[in-house]
Amino acid sequence: LKHRKIAKIYSTELADCTAVKVLPYDPDCSYWLYSLLVKEGTKEEFIEYLKDQGIAASPVHHRNDNYACTAAFKGGDLPGVDAFYREQVSIPVGWWLKSRDVAYIIETIRRYKA
């Protein structure tokens, strides 16, 4: 439940942030990850910026079609998946975050200039 609460706070507080695009909040989602989108070409810079501010962020997973076990599916045109992977970054949303941590993450993302 705490994951969803934090996700809703992020979705609300970052909705008007020009540095990132939040995905629509879904109350049925578990939010074991919270992903947002950054301007194409700035993903690594954004991750490094957060790291320098003491915030862990990453794409978490690579595309499934890049693994050997899914090689049979490789080669298809997946423009939506390509775009999502180029821009997607996950930020902390875990139960261990305190209110001050969530506020700090939001404030730090709001300060980011792509």
CA-atom Rg in angstroms: 15 Å
Strand content: 5-15%
- Largest sheet: spatial strand order: 1-2-3
**Percent of residues in helical segments?**
25-40%
N to C succession of SSEs: HEEHHEH
Instruction: Please describe the biggest sheet, giving its number of strands, its sense, and whether it closes into a barrel.
Output: 3 strands, antiparallel
The rough form would be described as globular
Average the pLDDT over all residues and give the rounded result.
91
Number of helices: 4
Number of strands: 3
Class from secondary-structure proportions = alpha+beta
Low-confidence stretches: none
Distance between the termini: 32 Å
Outline the structure in words.
- The protein is of the alpha+beta class.
- Helix content is 39%, strand content 11%.
- The mean pLDDT is 91.
Briefly characterize the structure.
The chain is α+β, with helices and mostly antiparallel strands and 114 residues long. It is built from four helices and three strands; from the N terminus they run αββααβα.
Set down the secondary structure blueprint.
Blueprint: H1 2-13, E1 20-22, E2 34-38, H2 43-52, H3 79-87, E3 88-91, H4 99-111
Antiparallel strand pairs: 1-2, 2-3
